[in-house]
Amino acid sequence: MNNLAEKFSRPEEIPSIPPARQVTSASNTWGLLADTVYPSLVRLLTGMLIVTLCLWMLAGIVDMVLGLREIPAAGWASIAEHAIIKALIMLALLEVIRTLQAYLKLGRVRVTFILDTALVVLIGELMGLWFKEYSSGKVFLGTGVIAILVALRIVTNKFSLEPHGGG
After folding, report:
1. What is the DSSP string of the chain?
2. Which of 40, 86, 143, 149 has the fewest CB atoms found within 10 Å of its own CB?
3. pLDDT of residue 24
């Protein structure tokens, strides 16, 4: 018992912080902002952006369904053209949402997700040219850009630093 009583009666020494490790309260404030507030704010804004994009997609789906009423008046081909273009825009939105979700999960955006989004958008634009007046130069330019993006996508997947091989 004597040993236990001595432990409680003897004050412990509080180690002092060496002068090199002392920080000012201003740098503590900036550190708090950089380490906690900023990432939380970015996550909140990114989440709100995802919700907004999902609501935008929902409005697009409702618009597409309501557009089915116009088939007898406008003709099937015209409505199909608009439906295809709207569906391609929604696929591009899905890729953007997927990129934002990956950012929330990983804390960064992977190049493969950016390339996937660009590919979906460009392929959608190229398919949209079917229904418009277009020059062969635009088609060749679009096809060339898509080919380059596909090659970049393959390279980034093959040489990814991710343990599962990218994707």
Report:
1. -HHHHHHHHSPPPPPPPPGGG---HHHHHHHHIIIIIHHHHHHHHHHHHHHHHHHHHHHHHHHHHHHGGGHHHH-HHHHHHHHHHHHHHHHHHHHHHHHHHHHHHHSS--HHHHHHHHHHHHHHHHHHGGGS---HHHHHHHHHHHHHHHHHHHHHHHT--STT---
2. 40
3. 56
Domain locations in the chain? 31-158
Rounded-to-integer distance, Cα 103 and Cα 142, Å: 28
- The CA distance from 121 to 91, in Å, is 8
- Measured N-to-C along each axis, helices 76-106 and 111-128 cross at an angle, to the nearest 10 degrees, of 170
Token pair 């709100």 is found at 48
Which of 21-35, 63-77, 147-161 is predicted least confidently? 21-35
The pTM for the full model equals 0.66
Q: Residue 138 has what pLDDT?
A: 83
Radius of gyration, CA atoms only, the chain: 28
Length of the chain: 167
